[in-house]
Automatic annotation (TrEMBL):
It comes from Scomber scombrus. Keywords: Endosome, Metal-binding, Repeat, WD repeat, Zinc, Zinc-finger. One of its GO terms (biological process) is positive regulation of fat cell differentiation. GO terms for molecular function: zinc ion binding. Its main location: other. WD repeats lie at residues 195-228, 238-272, 362-395. It is found in: Early endosome. Residues 281-352 form the FYVE-type domain. This is WD repeat and FYVE domain-containing protein 2. The keyword Metal-binding applies. The keyword tRNA processing does not apply. One of its GO terms (cellular component) is early endosome.
Length: 400
């Protein structure tokens, strides 16, 4: 069922520990069970499985339960061993796992949505079950009575959901690229604000309640760090992926962000550095360095008898420049640019080798990732891929 990988000592790289296979379809969501050598998975093949590591070093299913339809998402609470599974049908099925994780008892079914459940989140402190669906509804239920407490209609399908217990704020990311912040009460909610920084749909959200920072990943390959607690409205971009961001996890004890993308890339970001906001791009009808007209500036082109040029922008200062005045490329890690980007010639001269020091490390999982989960107590990372395989990684060499 699951092969044990003998770890090879490699400095500063995630170490592959195990693979879990034998799925008939893609694993939608999977989590590492804290303080246990175990994994819970829900799959599009309609199965819920609990995998425990045996003395042989292999993972074998201690629970194998087939649902009537595909499982789209789940939330697991280790303290209560409550497993909440979202279904393609719109319902959420709850189970209680036994202490030895060898039995799963049905507890309750919520008729939560009219379409596929996209995210489900159990909040023990509030005894709430939050969920979103393709019916564009965000709902919350009382987990004790099963009663629906409230609902909020979103503008687009929700693809990311986080909750802050202290302030009762729900962070909702959707397919339009927008992040909505809602203040939840027992039976109603109010709109606090919305953020729009992505050009693609939001694919993942991660909330750090200590620093009060929200991270959002997107199909536009970027990550944005939103400073909620600082009340400064700061938004820091992180550009380190070549494909859609599929998952985000934050290691608060080391202040490192772990992100993954659908091309298999895993990036570990050092967030314990003073980062800079990227500048807004300035508008101009001519190059702000050499004053050559851009191609839409017909008057200046006619007056100066010059051919109009294409407009570019320096990623460091934001000025509108022509290609000749921005012929250089550079990384700017403190601005989030781990790859080389266009900068104007004067900014290129001002960037030192120290400024180019990377603030992230890059690793290849060797499978197309659809989901990831980080378990901080063991320093373990789980990745699920389109290859129908779960991989377990030792992250202590890089997250420590």
């Amino acid at each position: 069922m699951a092969a044990e990988i003998q770890p090879q000592p490699q400095a500063r790289k995630p170490c592959l520990l195990s693979k879990i296979e034998a799925f008939q379809d893609v694993v939608s969501t999977a989590v590492i069970i804290p303080k246990e050598d175990g994994v819970i998975s829900v799959s599009e093949d309609r199965t819920i499985r609990v995998w425990l590591k045996r003395d042989s070093g292999q993972y074998w299913p201690s629970v194998y339960h087939t649902m009537p339809s595909s499982c789209s998402c789940m939330s697991f609470n280790p303290e209560t061993r409550r497993l909440s599974v979202g279904m393609d049908t719109g319902s959420i099925c709850e189970f209680i796992l036994s202490e030895d994780y060898n039995k799963m008892t049905p507890a309750r079914t919520y008729q939560a949505h009219q379409g596929k459940v996209t995210v489900v989140l159990f909040v023990l402190e509030m005894e709430w079950l939050l969920s979103t669906g393709q019916d564009k509804n965000f709902t919350w239920h009382c987990s004790e009575s099963g009663q629906q407490l409230g609902t909020y209609h979103t503008a687009a399908w929700v693809t990311g959901l986080q909750f802050d217990v202290e302030t009762r704020h729900a962070f909702v990311g959707d397919q339009s690229g927008q992040v909505t912040i809602l203040k939840l009460e027992q039976d109603n909610c109010s709109l606090v604000t919305t953020f729009k920084g992505h050009t693609g749909n939001v694919t993942a959200l991660c909330w750090d309640p200590v620093q009060r920072v929200l991270f959002s990943g997107s199909s536009d390959h970027s990550i944005i760090m939103w400073d909620i607690g600082g009340r400064k409205g700061t938004a820091i971009e992180l550009q380190g992926h070549n494909d859609r961001v599929q998952g985000l996890c934050y290691a608060s004890h080391t202040r490192q962000l772990i992100s993954c993308s659908s091309d298999g890339g895993i990036v570990i970001w050092n967030m314990d550095v003073t980062r800079q906001e990227t500048p807004e791009w300035l508008d101009s009808d001519s190059c702000q360095k050499c004053e050559q007209p851009f191609f839409w500036n017909f008057k200046q082109m006619w007056d100066s008898k010059k051919i109009g040029l294409r407009q570019h922008h320096c990623r460091k200062c934001g000025q509108a420049v022509c290609g000749k005045c921005s012929s250089k490329r550079s990384t700017i890690p403190l601005m989030g640019f781990e790859f080389e980007v266009r900068v104007c010639d004067s900014c290129h001269e001002s960037i030192t080798d120290e400024d180019r020091a990377p603030t992230a490390t890059f690793h290849d999982s060797k499978h197309s990732i659809v989901y990831l989960h980080y378990e901080p107590t063991a320093g373990s990372l789980l990745t699920s891929g389109t290859d129908k395989v779960i991989k377990l990684w030792d992250m202590t060499p890089v997250v420590s």
